[in-house]
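fold-stage: in
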Amino acid sequence: MSLHYQCRNCRTPLTTEETSSRLCDECCYLAADYRRYDDLREEGHMSDQAKLMCGLADPPDPDDE
């Protein structure tokens, strides 16, 4: 199988709808989250705050304190 028909991130085989971006559906969602994270960092948000805002991190558990 050609690399053109595999996800460039996780190497899973792609469907015909996914070949244009070369990302599978799951990796495409992650890429959108990371683009949102980069945008939030450029707006001046701190790293931890930006991760929470775009869903890349979970809020701290209050029971752990």
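fold-stage: in (second)
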Amino acid sequence: MLRPNMGRDAQDYVSRVTVDELKISVEGAGEQEFMRWDQLQWVVIEATMEEEGRSLMWRLQGLGVRRCRIPFGIEGEQLMLAKLQNLPGFDVLAVAEALCGSDAGRFICWRRDRSV
């Protein structure tokens, strides 16, 4: 499963994300971990202000403590986004707000309990 407490070093850890019909896989540091789509509970974009400027990170939460942070611009991100956009009730406006904003914040793109 995905590292339960992946911290701010996610950009150093994660090198690639891949998706298929059953799961999302994250590769990095010689390891591959995954989360099944049916375990996914919510998707958030976190915007933080750092010395280098504004940084965006995907945060996927699964059942229990399963979660993952995936930096924007990582290999496979566009395919992941296409799959996420197929989730019922996925909020593309939240993605646009995260991309166009200039402040730090959290942008909730999808929650399982709101998709029914």
